TrEMBL record:
Stored PANTHER family: ACETYLTRANSFERASE, N-ACETYLTRANSFERASE DOMAIN-CONTAINING PROTEIN
Occurrences of domain N-acetyltransferase (ranges): 113-245
Highest taxon of source: Bacteria
Origin organism lineage: Bacteria, Bacillati, Actinomycetota, Actinomycetes, Kitasatosporales
Protein name: Ribosomal protein S18 acetylase RimI-like enzyme
Molecular function GO terms recorded: acyltransferase activity, transferring groups other than amino-acyl groups
Pfam families (UniProt xref): FR47 (PF08445)
Amino acid sequence: MSGADAFAAGARPGETAGHPLDNPVRSSLTGPHARFAECRGRLLRYPPEVSPWLALPDDPEAGDWTDAAALAGPGGTVTIAAFREPPPDDWKVVFHAEGVQLVDETVAAAPDPEAVRLGPADVPEMLELVERTRPGPFAKRTVELGTYLGIRRSGVLVAMAGERLNPPGWSEISGVCTDESVRGQGLAGRLVRAVAHDIRERGDIPFLHAAASNTNAVRLYTSLGFRLRRRTAFLSALAPRRPVPADRH
């Protein structure tokens, strides 16, 4: 089930009770990214080839975790971003990282003359750069989530940044990476400012997430004019290997 069908199944625009950034994956999938939404019960997720993120309700119940297990399959993995609700005891956490959520306060957003817009034809190059630099989850269709900009040197893609989550009124800058051969030249900062410019031009506010342990990235983003909004967490967990009810749609 996807897109508008998700709303008929119980997910509604603006349903997140607090700020859109409090549960940003859900805010995105019940808002501007509704076209990507796959639904089971109260759960929403992106297609795995777009993004690994699963969106829980603000107040997850036992049945929601049952639906998460059904989506994952027995022993499968779910990945949850910027959400602190722990899984039940019969789930096994295989990855956990403390994170920070930063929002635009004084970013000097501006186009970059060297940046080029990247699209589906550039995905093989983008995936190669991601493999070398490990900026975080990036799949074959992630480029569909928003604008991606890159910088090439001698015809080779060496740096990029783009957009991922899109809660109403906000757009997340993500996929920020530079090849080791060009680090220290300020390319990441230039691309972040360029993506931020595109976001502001359509009336949204830039924000981003980073691992709290990635102090170099956090230092860069704060130097560009982002401020800490809140601390959060990211996790991946293995579903229990128990049978799951066949239909809870």
